[in-house]
Amino acid sequence: MLNIEKYGAVDIGSNAIRLLIVTVVEQKGKDTLFKKTSLVRVPIRLGAEVFLDGKISESNSKRMVDAMTAFRLLMSTHGIKRFRACATSAMREASNGTRIADKIEKESGISINIIDGKDEAAIIASTDLKTLIQDDKVFLYVDVGGGSTEITVFANGHSLVSKSFKVGTVRLIEGLVDDGVWDDMEEWIKKETKIFQKVSMIGSGGNINTIFKKSGKKLGKPLSYLYLSSYYKQIKAMSFEERITELDMNPDRADVVVPATRIYLSAMKWSKSKNVFVPKIGLSDGIIKSLYNEKIAAELEVN
């Protein structure tokens, strides 16, 4: 007998807002299946104004309310049993972030959890990331967003140390990352990985997913440093318009993919990683897994 439920996850990032709907299939005596049913992405680039002006504008506030109202209706149509909405660096740094969150809850019925970098890393770590983290290998996990980059070192099958850096694609486009922040990230990565002979990287985020998809590699196979370096030179030499027309990128991806690739390449260079694995997981996936884990924990308490 199968128990089938649908869960929803809303990820309010600095570059876009996403709704992920997952069908959770519980099978007696077997592993639970998580099937991605729908993904809706709205490119409301909150970070572009928050990182410059310190607040969310009225026009984007209205767009967020409209998006959340639409998401709520979609979740109702899908028959969602559990859902959670999380916001990262843009709303966290906005002076009116809490007020906007209250407005969204009042008008759409969706309560937003504004989380910090450590919470974000912990949520992502609850995904199927653990299936990649082998006991005999060392991994540098790098999640690149619009406002920040979360980095975690995994060894012996466990997370050793994590840190969030204010180096993100939208910040870089707006010229809001000084050399000191880059230096701090370089120093931290080198310090935390120098004791290991071999480090492989795991990359997450929409940009590395796009790069992986265009590479034609089979899922589970890594991208090499040489490939990523060559790709970076290619896209950096192209204009914004050429990336859209010749590489078939969406406009809101065609600009951020360049700084994102720079971040991934820098992390690989500083950790001496020769390969990057791309499992296509992110905050939304982590929210779904967290909701399911909470359900299981509650059932155990009742029993």
Q: SSE layout and pairings?
A:
Layout: E1 2-12, E2 17-27, E3 33-42, H1 46-53, H2 58-78, E4 82-87, H3 89-93, H4 97-108, E5 112-114, H5 117-125, H6 129-132, E6 139-144, E7 149-155, E8 158-165, H7 169-173, H8 179-193, E9 200-204, H9 206-215, E10 223-224, H10 225-237, H11 240-245, H12 251-254, H13 257-271, E11 275-277, H14 283-302
Helix pairs in contact: 2-4, 5-14, 8-13, 10-13
Question: What does this 3D model show about the protein?
Answer:
The chain is α/β, with parallel strands linked by helices and 303 residues long. The protein has two domains: 2-117, Nucleotidyltransferase, domain 5 (2-Layer Sandwich); 128-281, Nucleotidyltransferase, domain 5, CATH 3.30.420. Helices cover 49% and strands 24% of the residues. The chain contains 14 helices and eleven strands. Helix 2 crosses helix 4, helix 5 (117-125) crosses helix 14 (283-302) and helix 10 packs antiparallel against helix 13 (257-271).
